[in-house]
Amino acid sequence: EDKLYRIQNLGANFANSNCLATYGSWLLMQDDHQYNIIYILNIFTCEKIDLPSMKSQLRIEETEDDMFLVRFDNNRYVLFWFDEKTKDYVVMWIIQLRFLVYSRRVDKFWKQIEIFDFFADMVYKDHKLYLYTSWSRDVKVLDFSQDIPRQIFETQVNYDDLGKWCLNTHICRIKNENLVVRVTGEVLRVKSIVSYNSDVWYFRIYKLDSSNSEWEKLDSLGDEEAIFLDLGITVHANTIQGIDGNSIYFSGNHNFYYDSYLGHFWSEKDIFIFNIGTQEIKRPHPSIFSSIQLSNARWFVPNFKQM
Prior knowledge:
Residues 2-275 form the KIB1-4 beta-propeller domain. It comes from Brassica napus. It holds the Pfam family Beta-prop_KIB1-4. This is (rape) hypothetical protein. This protein is mostly beta strands. It has a domain at 126-307. Helix content is 5%, strand content 40%. It has 3 helices and 23 strands. The protein has helices at residues 12-15, 68-73, 286-289; strands spanning 17-23, 26-31, 38-42, 48-50, 78-82, 89-95, 99-104, 111-114, 119-125, 128-133, 138-143, 150-154, 172-181, 187-195, 201-208, 215-218, 225-228, 233-236, 247-251, 258-259, 264-265, 271-275, 280-282. It is globular.
């Protein structure tokens, strides 16, 4: 705690780019002026990997209504994975609510798969893509270990009422649902809720029952596990210095939200820690962050390894 690290000389391109996603020490970046330019950057070594140009490869018309502006306005559908040893990587996102677009190290161009469901969130772990369908609460798993991805698992969840625990919609509103894959491979569903009368988050965590047909409420992760909501995974808290167990690490930026009822934007350009046991939220190292003007801040775990 109480340590602030400043990284210099990241180059002019970094200042003119937007961070779409992180994995370990690597950032997925998009040029602010040329949306089709996407690259991967190691924030410590400044190693840069240029991805194939999207403009000439994708068979989707480039307009303000679909591909670039709408797609990158919502980082929720961007996914990025990187292997530190082999330098293998996967970059993917959903556009137009119809296409899963992806590129791997071995690919010379972007590939796409047409999908027929609305997926609210997705997580990539162990060469598997986990897709969460919000309207049915189902989880679908695609295997990316081979050249052609194939579906290997899908739940048949009985519908449950999302809002039944909070009947007064003037007091709270469900903002997002996130899919989280635990260290063990178990799938979790995390609901983030915000109060109207203050910028306060609450979280509810659910796990699938043994038949994969019902979501059951989970009251605790245990002191040795923590959720990184932006990454969609859990980590062993005792393997990463300074990480609190039974907590959710999240950034307000990925849930940027306009409240039509109150007519204002939530102030969410910050990073937070939610303690599941106490139901309290705190900002990390307030003595340091009080002197820094944050913009689109997010958590990342350098040299992160999924165990």
